[in-house]
Write a structure and sequence with these properties.
The structure is a homodimer of 340-residue chains. Chain A is 49% helix and 16% strand. In chain A, helix 4 (86-95) packs parallel to helix 5 (108-119), helix 6 (154-170) crosses helix 13 and helix 9 packs antiparallel against helix 10 (259-278). The radius of gyration of chain A is 21 Å and the shape is globular. Chain A folds into two domains: 1-125 and 291-322, Isopropylmalate Dehydrogenase (3-Layer(aba) Sandwich); 131-284, Isopropylmalate Dehydrogenase, CATH 3.40.718.10. Chain A has 340 residues and is α/β, with parallel strands linked by helices. Chains A and B meet through helix 8, helix 9 and helix 10 of A and helix 8, helix 9 and helix 10 of B.
Chain lengths: 340, 340
Amino acid sequence: MSAPIIAIDAMGGDFGPRNIVQASLACLTATPSLHLVLVGQAPLIEELVSGHEAVDRSRLRVIHASEAIAMDERPSQALRGKPDSSMRVALELVASGQAQACVSAGNTGALMALSRFVLKTLPGIDRPAMIAAIPTRSGHCQLLDLGANVDCSAEALYQFAVMGSVLAEILGVATPRVALLNVGTEDIKGNQQVKRAAGLLQSASGLNYIGYVEGDGLYRGEADVVVCDGFVGNVLLKSSEGLATMIAARIETLFQRNLLSRAVGALALPLLKRLQTDLAPARHNGASLLGLQGVVVKSHGSASVSGFQSAIQRAIVESGENLPQRLRGRLETVFQGGRT
Amino acid sequence: MSAPIIAIDAMGGDFGPRNIVQASLACLTATPSLHLVLVGQAPLIEELVSGHEAVDRSRLRVIHASEAIAMDERPSQALRGKPDSSMRVALELVASGQAQACVSAGNTGALMALSRFVLKTLPGIDRPAMIAAIPTRSGHCQLLDLGANVDCSAEALYQFAVMGSVLAEILGVATPRVALLNVGTEDIKGNQQVKRAAGLLQSASGLNYIGYVEGDGLYRGEADVVVCDGFVGNVLLKSSEGLATMIAARIETLFQRNLLSRAVGALALPLLKRLQTDLAPARHNGASLLGLQGVVVKSHGSASVSGFQSAIQRAIVESGENLPQRLRGRLETVFQGGRT
């Protein structure tokens, strides 16, 4: 793997550049071959960098961008009204080949719109999808879309299924079981988009499409790739995170009742904390925007320093694996083999 | 409360009438004022009843219905093609005043279609919604729709919000906080239906509409009533159930690792089992079809005997509380006060 260069949108997220700079410097220390480009308010970033010791400036560039995109800004405004935003400049570094990946904790809708505009989608893909792995009883499952597309056509769901399957293959699953998330497993169940997507997937070649899976089947590990629209995926991910947190809090309370239970609670709590982390991949590990001609990783807006570090790590892996190029190759095969 | 008469669709569900008959007889024993009407294949039901001892036949009628609706049958077929189905005959007993409520574990779509046709909806309500309470960090929240309506207009979401609020009031919440489930809390977030429903709710009088809530906010207890379309609600409910089961299994494994942890695991497991029950209200307690001119409770298709008993119990409470009449009264006030 050659030395990766990652462009960082230093102005995105709920907490401003402080956490992002700190996470970036930690990654530079942890990965000696890594080069980073921090994009945003250069004086502010330089000041934050100068507060840290022993920074290898030969691997750290700062590029000034005069604008920042607010978390509640409309994507259309971010696209048309801010040509010099930190997010856009970071993406342009990927488009021009000066960086291999972009990481941002900023406005999801704006990142989606700008990524499509600056990087373009892969052939056959209309809209990128956000994907992350969630834990199941038998391992993990790749869930997409997680919120980048609140409304999805049947064609979009079909494309997500193909992309998810290819990603799962790249990550080592031999013949990924691909399913559509639905409210029942019978043919008559679901809305029109899901039913039509099922028809497209049934006639697709080179895909191990196994049919519908329900919310409980997902956690039972019935599929390796689960496809849904971004509204449903976002609600599923966030409610799972909330539920895991609630269960952990209830068990914590239970274990505080007496000395014995307090002593033994220590046994269960690390497992629960680990589960909570697993269940909030977007918050802790970043989620990928899949289907673009470049690697883009979205970190959670309120990610901690270690959360943003994980997102950078994910970008290093995906660019090292040449994910977009491999995705393009496999997509061509699947689309040629199936419907045209 | 006068003696309630509940009509039971004895042929619905995944396991046939055996569990349903057993649950019905257990309810008759537990509630001495209760009268039940079992509707379905009379010879089969009579045979199952005769296998039990000490049945008070003065409180148990069996009404023959020559047809049964399959779990995967299209609602339109159930509506037009089966005039003598057990589900329909049971609902007709409610419509004619011979019973105060109907309980079915059968095909949800058919129950929805037949309930609307036989019982009609309340004034101002286009489509009934399925509602159940789910646990939160601070208590419970009423979630609707849980799967009766996979696609919902903004107007439908608005009506669900009003109905959910009224039910929460009836159940004792003084000024229920009503929220729309969304992928973010900013105004620009969400699909068109949700954004338009927000507009309708903002201008509604007599409602404590608090805005958007996300999946994690729901479990944090940010609202007393959470409104979404049936696709999203169904996925949320079933994935929560699946996740709770998965967490319980993982903790069970953890506690089996050594003697000490095995001994102490007993402390945590009852809590987890309780949580699992709480998180599967449709499976364990039944869910109500809200907005009809009559009480209809849907038991889960694979409900256990105790699960079906809980559904009958719910029907007893709702008919005792005159839920449809009280709902009608409050709906008139809200709809008159707000938009016309």
